[in-house]
Amino acid sequence: MDPFPSPMDEFNRRLIQYVHPQNWKNPDPQPVYDMVVIGGGTAGLVTAAGSAGVGAKVALIEKSLLGGDCLNYGCVPSKALLHAAKQAHAAKTSGMALNQSEFFTNAMNTLRKKRSEIAEHDSAQHFTDLSIDVFLGTARFTGPREIEVAGKKLRFKKACIASGARASLPPIPGLSETPHLTNETLFNLVDLPKNLTIIGGGPIGSEMAQAFQRLGSQVTLLNAGPQILEREDSRAAALIDTVFRREGIAIHTGIKILSASGNSDSQTVVFEAGGKQVLLQSDRILVAAGRTPNIEGLNLEVAEVQHTKHGVTVDDHLRTTNKKIFACGDVASVYKFTHLADFQARIVIQNALFFGRKKASALRVPWVTYTEPEVAHVGVYPKDAEGKGITLRRFSLDFSTVDRSKLEDETEGFAEIIIGENSDAILGATIVHPRAGEMISEITVAMHAGFGLGSLASVIHPYPTQAEILRKLGDAYNRTRLTPTAKKILGFLLKLNR
Predict the structure, then answer these.
(1) Is the pLDDT assigned to residue 242 strictly greater than 60?
(2) Which end of the chain has fewer surrounding CB within 10 Å, N or C?
């Protein structure tokens, strides 16, 4: 079972009463279920609620905390902490005195309070009220059409594996024996770490690096790859790197971690950089180096469900090798996002219960790294397309060209839209800006609806807004269509009209 949040204050007691009530009594199983869902995170909850909503008999199994990673250890607490860190940064940059220890204590109290308030929507009672049989316990397949939980057998017509993922532990000598934090324990902190070492420069590591640096820790970010945010465009990653260093974060990329050691009061990481060994001491280590699917103990072989170290194997319809069993969310997806888990669950409902043929590959998935500025992306990256021999056209503008950005001193960042060689169909986009996550949806809608880049120029944007940059990118594309021949024709028409 995943660790329960601590400290056990009024907020965490309320959280647990919602998402894993200690006095919960599992119901008696029905003779057969239309859908049995393993996992009570976003993917599982949406699958269960949606299936029950169309009249299916549904059972939902969760071994730990309903709400899964997002509510308990991920999206909800991390964004609450990022908000607090932004407030601390604004106070310090404006010259206000800040008691960092007291501020951190208040921020963590607020985090736990907000999480407990949101938890009601993911509670065991809420899903029981939706006519779903909620079972708390560890699930294991006992056959291709049967699951056991807490000594009870559940037979099903269809099932969905949505057991999620957890933080990976990289094979660093001594790390498993060294006290360390992951996203599952980070938000249990009561005292602000004076020094924090973060292993992994992906989205989680980068977000928490900036948050804790702003809250008052001295953060060192270690990344094996050549840049932080390795998935992102190099220009976007370089901009975030610059911001981080300016805020005081020590960044080491292209390094190899040789060992970790220490006790609960002090830990040491030894890494190699530029041919030299560096010894780094801190009072906390956060491991944010990828995710591992939760498939242990499910007895997937008995269910005739194939899997690898990357998770449950599914086809484009999210079916496993047992055609009666589907899988979605982090346990079966390369991209591990809450919003993607939600939409994959919708595909499972249609395909499992209504003979649907919806394809996961048809989803256009935007994502955001919630640093400041944010990094938002949807579609292809130029480096991937060019690696496949696809010729692209890139249209990019800095936010220094946008009046609202100038007025609010938010000119650091850019928006770039990628189109093909012979049409204006949008293939991808990257936005780096404090509100990039809000703007990327306009591009996603355009891609979903089949609107080309040129069409953005005809959409009236309120003035002044940050999103005006998207209309400007449409204008930039349309100007390229004004060929010398077109100019001559327009000149001729102007003469006729004089």
Answers:
(1) yes
(2) C
Angle between helices 338-353 and 42-53 (to 10 degrees): 40
Domains and CATH numbers, the chain: 10-167+292-362 (3.50.50.60), 183-289 (3.50.50.60), 373-480 (3.30.390.30)
Residue 246 — φ and ψ, nearest 5°? -60, -35
Is the model's pLDDT at 496 over the cut of 80?
no
> Whose structure tokens read 């970010």?
221
For 181, the 3-state DSSP assignment is strand
Instruction: Please give the structure tokens belonging to residue 407.
Output: 């007025």
DSSP 197-231: EEE--SHHHHHHHHHHHHHT-EEEEEESSSSSSTT
Residue 438 CA neighbour count, 13 Å, CB half: 8
The secondary structure of 368-393 as a DSSP string is EE-SSSEEEEEE--HHHHHHTT--EE
Q: List the Cα angle 288/139/114 in 5-degree steps.
A: 50
For residues 457 and 478, the answer to whether their CB atoms sit within 8 Å is: yes
Segment (H or E) for 72? helix 68-72
Residue type, 479: R
Specify the long-range contacts of residues 483-486, CB closer than 8 Å, at least 24 apart. Answer: none
Using the structure block, give the residue that is written with the tokens 């936010």: 399
What is the biggest distance separating any 2 CA atoms in the chain, rounded to whole angstroms?
89
CA–CA separation, 5 and 388 (whole Å): 46
1-10, 52-61, 267-276: range with lowest mean pLDDT: 1-10
Answer whether 64's CB lies under 8 Å from 3's CB: no
The residues, any chain, with a CB within 8 Å of residue 102's CB and separated by 6 or more, are: none
Q: What DSSP state is assigned to residue 329?
A: G
Query: How far apart (Å, rounded) are the C-alpha atoms in residues 228 and 248?
Result: 15
Digit-coded pLDDT (tens) for 377-414: 999 999 888 778 788 999 999 999 999 999 999 999 99
Q: How far is CA 117 from the centre of its chain?
A: 21
Residues 6+ apart with CB under 8 A from 308: none
Specify burial of residue 102 (Cβ count, 10 A radius: 0-12, 13-18, 19+).
exposed
The answer to whether 196 and 282 are in contact (CB under 8 A) is yes
What is the C-alpha to C-alpha distance for residues 161 and 131, in angstroms, rounded to an integer? 20
- DSSP assignment letter at 459: S
